[in-house]
Design brief:
ten-stranded mixed β-sheet; three-stranded antiparallel β-sheet
């Protein structure tokens, strides 16, 4: 996904050492001096700290033992320019809201990575002039939050833009060089054969620039996948692509490969259950893969009704679950045993007292910031839209502001 971090206690340090990973020690602008092990950054699930009804990070940490979060997403300003923002609207330079989330996480011995890009909005690689200026924009994020990890989420439409991908890969290489020990992941779309044509072109761009991140992760969902079996086949095929592209042997390719899943119902109506996550987790650990993460913690709770009437939500999973079921698989990947105890069913939400906005109209034109009500929830427009049903897609123009 994306402050003061308390130093890890002796017991936690032993647990992290047992995960078999190295720890980065570096000072940062927030005064924190101790990073987590790389295995934690590799296990960090995505969290939107400003959108999609953000859950309380401290609650998740207490319930699951999770220590790392992947905060999403840093984008170019909606109006254009080469300066980092959260979601295209909130300037990183003046941010206090995300900083507060990071403070909370670090005060409990955890840490964050920040993800740039994603599916929606305009990416900095598209608006900055070259790799150097793109890197300078991201360096502002690294410096402000004292980051030890960063994720480049390169997917459509950006990864169809050759110049933008050159800027992003070049920026990633510069950040890696200028911030020794920085954990860098690159996330891209997954297909049945591993990744598509544009994903392969992105890998070739990395090869041409001599850039090797900690991992290249694929997202095997929204592409006709049916459970874990299809996902592990895609991971096996992607491993072959990494071998042929970089000249690695199988083990080296797996050591630079990652999985980024989607918990519950995907945008295209696929379903991934807790059992699917366990199967992919077993595959990842058995093959010594570098990363296991998912989209997202905002969705790691049960909808009401549990199937969400057959739609995909940004705030719940659309499968039967207890809160934070899926986060526990990330904890296991990090090498830690989640807390045990009798699972507590997700409580039925109490009716909201929030007033409903004016009802959404298919004929009306909405611009960024406009609010409407639809299907018992209030929604805020992220950008210009007309005749796009609120909630029809998590990646659509509408941000769910909760029940009304």
């Amino acid at each position: 996904m994306r402050p003061l971090r308390a130093c890890l206690g002796a017991a936690a340090a032993v647990t992290l050492a047992a995960a078999g990973t190295t720890a980065l020690v570096a000072s940062n602008a927030s005064g924190a001096t101790t990073a987590l092990s790389n295995r934690w950054y590799a296990a960090a699930p995505y969290l939107m700290p400003l959108d999609n009804n953000p859950p309380n990070a401290a609650t998740i940490m207490d319930a699951t033992g999770l220590k790392a979060f992947q905060l999403a997403f840093v984008l170019a300003p909606n109006g254009g320019g080469c300066s980092p923002t959260w979601g295209g609207t909130a300037a990183v330079s003046s941010d206090t809201a995300v900083q507060s989330v990071i403070n909370t996480i670090r005060s409990k011995g955890g840490d964050v990575s920040v993800s740039i890009g994603g599916y929606g909005g305009t990416k900095l690689g598209q608006t900055c002039a070259d790799p150097a200026s793109t890197a300078a924009a991201y360096q502002q994020v690294v410096t402000k939050y004292g980051l030890h990890a960063i994720d480049f989420d390169l997917e459509e439409p950006e990864y169809e833009n050759t110049a933008a991908i050159k800027n992003e890969i070049g920026a990633a290489k510069i950040l890696q060089q200028n911030n020794p020990g920085l954990y860098v992941s690159v996330t891209t779309a997954g297909t049945a054969d591993g990744t598509g044509w544009f994903g392969k072109q992105m890998l070739l761009e990395a090869k041409s620039q001599g850039f090797t991140p900690n991992n290249f992760s694929i997202m095997p969902f929204d592409g006709g996948f049916s459970g874990a079996a299809a996902q592990t086949i895609a991971l096996t095929n992607f491993n072959s692509i990494l071998q042929s592209t970089f000249g690695w042997d199988q083990a080296t390719a797996y050591a630079h490969e990652g999985f980024s899943g989607m918990n519950g119902r995907s945008d295209s109506g696929e379903y991934f259950s807790q059992a699917d996550f366990q199967t992919v987790l077993d595959y990842a650990t058995n093959h010594h893969m570098d990363r296991f993460t998912f989209w997202s913690l905002n969705r790691d709770r049960q909808c009401s009704p549990p199937d969400n009437n057959g739609t995909t939500s940004g705030t719940c999973s659309s499968v039967a679950q207890n809160d934070w079921d899926f986060a526990k698989y990330s904890v296991k990947f990090a090498g830690v045993t989640p807390p045990t105890g009798t699972p507590t069913p997700t409580p039925t939400p109490t009716p909201s007292s929030t007033a409903c906005k004016t009802a959404w109209s298919s004929a009306a034109v909405y611009t960024a910031g406009n609010e409407v009500s639809y299907s018992g929830h209030n929604w805020k427009a992220k950008w210009w839209t007309q005749n796009e049903v609120p909630g029809a897609s998590e990646w659509g123009p509408w941000q769910d502001e909760g029940a009304c």
